[in-house]
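During data preparation, a discrete fold description was generated, and the record follows.
___
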Amino acid sequence: MSKIIRFGEDVDGYNIPVLNEREIRAAAGLWFLMLFTSVMFVSFKENFIMFKFSIIAFLLDFIIRVLINPKYSPSLILGRLIVRNQTPEYVGAPQKKFAWVIGLVLATIMFVHLVIVNAFSPITGIICLTCLIFLFFESAFGICLGCKFYPMVYKEKAQYCPGEVCDVKTKQAIQKTTKVQILIVFGFLIFMALTVSVFHANFRTTPYDLFGIEQYFQSK
């Protein structure tokens, strides 16, 4: 039983249980895609079916992760299959468990609120947005926002963070950002703002079929 119910894997060279960050990021990307698509159905079609299904699946997945074993989490299994040819990047299991407990609590609130009570409110909206932000940062940047709170609660430094962000180190030249690069980003934002202002009317108008292809097929 101890081999089934546990959190993290024992790997030579690491003094605490660890997890594979690559498969975690892959799983986060899958969940972000599913939840974001569900939100789009709610926003544009007022259809909550996929959203409710996603919440149930998300809650069950996190129950397995936190209370049984991440090894048996369906999303992490899919993530493992997706990145099976990539070299593992190990991350400390304790901080991940803390972050996933946060996810489990949020998923439970959403399940009770939206599935059992069958109601939506600013609470569900805020929690959903929070989950999407957490998942996006994990999948896109490899940044575990929930892990950031681990040292505050447990009063100890997290070990084996992705990209060694827990360790104080000197940035390499390729990591440094120059003033010119910062100005380019600001210039890009200003250009986009001006573009939206100039073409505001065009943006609000639906494009017409230049060659009449749609009308041609509709007439058939």
Residues 18-170 form one domain.
